[in-house]
Write a structure and sequence with these properties.
The chain is α/β, with parallel strands linked by helices. The protein contains seven helices and ten strands. Strand 9 and strand 10 form a beta hairpin.
Length: about 250
């Protein structure tokens, strides 16, 4: 039973429909999986297979039409501080500096100003952004903005990090740097990560498991365990073996 408290994150018989032209459009159907504490799971699939919709349901932003999401034995009904989302767009407040953006959510949790400043300094340092603390979003690069967006959620110490193609808009080199940074931070904080991506190489690089989705309606086609030690090298023959296997699943 996924409502068992021993199941960290569980998705059971999940379905979602949206209004169509006279007939509801089934976006997700019979989605079932579990995620362990500290596990990194990627979700891949073609556009329109419901990946982002699934992530929004996990976050509590959308309600399923059937089935349930359980977190440590409790049904997920709404957003909560235990689950934080990083979107493809950085969603930073343009009038706040990098440091102020990072502090924004934390100010709603604690009142100790000096503690907030210490935590902001710590996360700016972790992100390699200490010298950009007082810069506005328009004054820093896309990669730096995503570092700020990531710091803004990590500082809240969520148990689950939900990431919706967060590096898709970055150039290839910056994207790989962000993947490496994410894994470094995961090594320190051990969050459970559910990561939506179109990039098969990205999924192989970061994941313990990859959920492959089909479309019309969105269903789980296969789940692949990525049995590779970290750090992973893209030129490695075993890396390419998993890449080819996932790519073939997406093409078939």
């Amino acid at each position: 039973m996924l409502c068992d408290k021993n199941v960290f994150l569980g998705v059971e018989n999940l379905g979602k429909q949206f209004p169509g032209n006279g007939t509801p459009l089934t976006v997700l159907e019979n989605i079932n999986f579990e995620a362990e504490d500290g596990e990194v799971i990627s979700i891949v699939g073609r556009s329109g297979c419901g990946k982002s919709t699934l992530l929004k349901i996990l976050a509590g932003f959308l309600k399923p039409d059937s089935g349930s999401v359980f977190f440590k034995g409790s049904r997920v009904h709404r957003p909560g501080p235990d689950r934080c989302v990083v979107f493809q767009e950085d969603a930073l407040f343009p009038w706040l500096t990098a440091g102020e953006n990072i502090a924004f959510g934390l100010k709603r949790q604690i009142r100790d100003g000096s503690r907030i400043e210490r935590e902001v300094d710590r996360f700016l340092d972790l992100m390699g952004l200490s010298q950009f603390r007082d810069y506005l979003p328009r004054e820093i690069s896309g990669g730096m903005k995503q570092r700020v967006a990531l710091a803004r959620v990590l500082i809240l110490n969520p148990e689950i990090l939900l990431m919706d193609e967060p590096f898709a808009a970055l150039d290839a080199q910056t994207r790989e740097e962000m993947q490496e940074l994410l894994l470094e931070l995961w090594g320190q904080f051990s969050h459970t990560i559910v990561f939506v991506t179109h990039d098969v190489g990205e999924a192989v690089a970061i994941s313990d498991r990859v959920i492959v989705m089909d479309k019309n309606p969105g269903r789980i086609k296969d789940v692949i365990n990525i049995e590779l030690e970290r750090p992973r090298r893209r030129e490695d023959v075993n890396f390419m073996r998993f890449y080819s296997r996932l790519y073939k699943l997406l093409r078939d």
